[in-house]
Predict the 3D structure of the following.
Amino acid sequence: MRRVALFGAALIVVAPMCACGTGIAGASTAHATVLRAGHVSPADVGAPAGSKPIAPALSVVPPVSESSTLAGPVLPFGGAVSYGSLSGVQLNKPIVGMAATPTGHGYWLVASDGGIFSFGDAHFHGSMGGTRLNAPVVGMAASPTGNGYWLVATDGGIFTFGDAHFHGSTGNLHLVRPVIGMARDATGGGYWLVATDGGIFTFGDAHYYGSGGGMHLAEPVVGMAATPTANGYWLVEQSPPTVFSPSLVASLNGRAGVISADVLDLASGISYQYRPGQLSITASIVKVQILGTLLQRAQAANRSLTSSEMSTATAMIEDSDNDAATALWNEVGGAPSVHAFDQQVGLTATTPNVDWGLTTTDPTDQVTLLNHLVHSNSVLSDSSRAYELGLMEHVTPSQAWGVSAGVAPGSIIALKNGWLPISSGWTVNSVGWVEGAGRNYLIAVTTSGDPSMGYGIDSISEVSEAAWSALAH
């Protein structure tokens, strides 16, 4: 679901959601490139009078195809009527926007090269088709009379036709984030431009009512609309990426055993979950807690780990040596001490067992634990965190499966896996931190009742591959 930000007198009206079909013939899916956040300052933008440069969040720039494309249909709903479309017509550039006439008996379509196509009582007043543009067109607005229109490009350049008057643009300025849309005021005496960070630029007699720039938006803005009286406007964010797509959920639902997963995108703060709250035996992933307990107790005693402790910890994490785990488990005081550490880091669903491998947990708790390894906190010092992560980054290659699946070479992967056959089937788990190629996320996947260890690994790999694919920024 998209999030809508409102300003001025704009209101949010919530209607029942329609579960409509997809896969429309002639429609295509646009892929976008996400850019890291920057900061817009007056020096960056060179803001003209009446414009408001705003601090950005994230940015998406829809790519323009270099080859011809087939146009899709115009789909009317409610009292709207179709007056024609370009469905199936081969175009030089894709359609990127439309505007209706004041009567509602016609509309214009605009392509990214500025080409205009008119239908119904919409009259053609000119276009940029055939003209070389500095930046692609991304939207349009019709004049109040319907006898003209404006086109806007990603650099904020404005092109006017008919009785649509020019009131200014950002076309000659350096924008840190691209313009994605526009709306006119009630009289046509001014207009707003909106950038993908939610920044608003006002021109003519269009008034400034606020922006999304200071909201630290999780997703880029993809459009705007003004109220009929032009005393406010709405901005809408792009739907966030999802790790657990319908196809992945269907696949996981069809697999044997019980699967639960939690993925936290550290760039956006958004958590993606599949069957949260399912408890599972930890098997060897509890060794991350054991080492955390050892490090915290050493900190409290104001000492470093001994050479013997470091050697044992390395064997426990990198080689998943069970004898080493038992030695450190006993050294720290067993289940009560590990439970105390768990309480300090905020694990609410984890119960240490006197037999450490039978400790129970859920993926959300494991992500919470990982967060205490990746970010500074009051429980583990920076040196303790770095030490444990360093071991997790160097697990023996034969144990580097799981949440590493699908991750590009050269990325940081700090993980710990666990596997244990019991009477009800295999328990196979994988937890870790992944950073690289524009991704930065924590991931924990637990499985139980698997027919084999390899089957559990395959289930975890599906989730890992989906997370890597979905969370590029």
Q: What stands out?
A: The chain has a mean pLDDT of 86. Residues 220 and 238 are 6 Å apart (CA to CA). The first strand starts at residue 4 and ends at 8.
